Amino acid sequence: xxxxxxxxxxxxxxxxxxxxxxxxxxxxxxxxxxxxxxxxxxxxxxxxxxxxxxxxxxxxxxxxxxxxxxxxxxxxxxxxxxxxxxxxxxxxxxxxxxxxxxxxxxxxxxxxxxxxxxxxxxxxxxxxxxxxxxxxxxxxxxxxxxxxxxxxxxxxxxxxxxxxxxxx
Length: 168
Known about the structure:
Elements: H1 23-32, E1 61-64, E2 69-74, E3 77-78, E4 83-86, E5 97-100, E6 103-109, E7 117-123, E8 130-133, E9 144-146, H2 148-157, E10 163-167
Parallel strand pairs: 1-10, 8-9
Antiparallel strand pairs: 1-2, 2-3, 2-4, 4-9, 5-10, 6-7, 7-8
Signal peptide: 1-32
Keywords: Cell shape, Cell wall biogenesis/degradation, Peptidoglycan synthesis, Signal, Transferase
Active site: 132 (proton donor/acceptor), 143 (nucleophile)
């Protein structure tokens, strides 16, 4: 499922009537201007110089547990710089696989873990695991912790139903 936050309109679907307000003078100038040769499409450089995110093109957010990074993505390309993360411990790991954003809570407090604050929570599985802001100094209980600004960015970009991919 594609996320709503990064899609741009397909310019091929713009109708000719959308060009009508340009006027005759503008059309004459455009016709007189030399046509530039189209440059071959080049792949966009990967954000942060870490190569392409290792997830499928359908992912709206990609998490690489081995590199301890996450990216917002669109059609397999990073649309954000790599975000440093902390994930679960070997005893309580962050699951790998494909998930869908379940819900978002700006001010979530964990009932399972001593009323721990989980700001900017974006829940992605039925077990209550989420992306959220928090300390990256230690492992989580399976959540993906991010710095506050990165958690805010993910929270703003993702919507319920968006695809989450987590790889190792």
